[in-house]
Amino acid sequence: MHEQQDQQQERRPEQRPERHREQAPEHGPLAGFTVGVTAARRADELGALLQRRGAAVVHAPALRIVPLADDAELLDATEALVTRPPDIVVATTAIGFRGWVEAADGWGHGEELLAVLRGVRLLARGPKVKGAVRAAGLTEEWSPATESMAEVLDRLLGQGVAGLRIALQLHGEPLPGFVEALDDAGADVVVVPVYRWMPPEDQAPLDRLIDAAVARSLDAVTFTSAPAAASLLSRAEHRGLRDELLDALRHDVLPACVGPVTAVPLQSRGIDTVQPGRFRLGPLVQLLCQELPGRARTLPVAGRRIEIRGHAVLVDGELRPVPPAGMSLLHTLARRPGWVVSRADLLRALPGAGRDEHAVETAMARLRSALGAPKLIQTVVKRGYRLALDPTAEPAYAAEA
After folding, report:
1. Element (H or E) spanning 5, and its range?
2. Whole-angstrom Cα distance, residue 393 to residue 377?
3. Cα–Cα dist 20/61, whole Å
4. What domains lie within the chain, and their CATH numbers?
């Protein structure tokens, strides 16, 4: 009996690690990547979606929304429409439409405005706007499947707008050519400015995000509105970092936009963006889950498979966080896997290291420790270091490259 218990106790230490490996949770698809969030509204929701998939999130609101409930311009537009009702009203955002109705109610014009809206052709830009319209007890005539203002404009011009009075609820940003096209077609356009985008009161988080993008510490930046993209670029220009930021966004930091309208300020500066098929936060996050892992560098090294991500490395599927200096060295070694990289070249890759080659040795020791597999990187005496690329895998690697 005692012998059986002793044997069971001897087996338990060997069995536990195996059970632990079987039950260890897998990392998320964005593990090892850092994503910047520029949104002002729903930033917590977007950040939570990214973090649940493993990403590190840097949040820096690029703007703030200023309601215009006490704004004379909104009051004047509302009174003008109550006095002389329009033929068509275009509602562009749910928050804007609700804000307009609430502001009108505060001024004592709420019932008058709703009565006017019940008697017009009401166009809603998308599902959220339709929800706000119906919550106010109204019914939209039409809403584009694409949620595109370009499609709204095409419909209006196709049906003819000459002599019609059209109220356009703005959504905090200019609509290039929209009002002008309606004016040219003979419409009388009344703009309804419900809220404005303003720079954030505290610019420090935005400055840190710009610095991180320029330093390539970010793998992607998300944009959920065109004003946020324009604000980021404007702030970088104000700080004298416009060219550096544009270069980062063009080559190393992925700009991910919720839709084509949001992408306009970036694309106008020659920056390619990625956008989901559906203009929602969920599809935006799913797009990043596809794009970022696809950009990771995967190599067969010393009998292991390593995948180099933004601030971490997958070593045979195990996520290993790596300090920034170590990632700089690893990226430099990975540019020519299997080739010797001199200490001088590695020193140049270390930000702020100066001329002390001992900094390379210190960073390299920390990198090896972080990777948990010292043999991945070989020291070549008097020459430098190299990634121990598997010779048998080189032909396959060359074919993939």
Report:
1. helix 2-23
2. 16
3. 41
4. 27-63+200-295 (3.40.50.10090), 66-198 (3.40.50.10090), 297-400 (1.10.10.10)
pLDDT digits (tens, 9 = 90+) for 378-395: 999 989 999 999 866 544
Determine the pLDDT at residue 354: 62
* Beta-sheet strand order (sheet of 56-59): 56-59, 34-37, 220-223, 254-257
Report d(CA 255, CA 269) in Å as an integer.
13
Of the candidates 161, 145, 367, the one whose C-alpha atom is nearest the C-alpha of residue 278 is 145
Query: By C-alpha distance, which of 294, 221, 232 is closest to 258?
Result: 221
DSSP 276: -
Token match 């905090």: residue?
A: 172
CA distance linking residue 320 with residue 314, whole number of Å: 6
Is residue 169 within a helix (H) or strand (E), and if so which, with residue range?
A: strand 165-170
Contacts of the segment 201-205: beta carbons below 8 A, 24+ positions apart: 201/64, 203/235, 205/59, 205/60, 205/61
User: Which amino acid is it at 167?
Assistant: A
Q: pLDDT (tens digit, 9 = 90+) per residue, 323-343?
A: 999 999 999 999 989 999 999
Note the pTM of the prediction, 2 decimals. 0.73
DSSP state of 112: H
Q: Read off the pLDDT of residues 268-293 as tens digits, 9 standing for 90 and up.
A: 999 999 999 888 899 999 999 999 99
3-state secondary structure of 19: helix
pLDDT averaged over every residue in the chain: 87
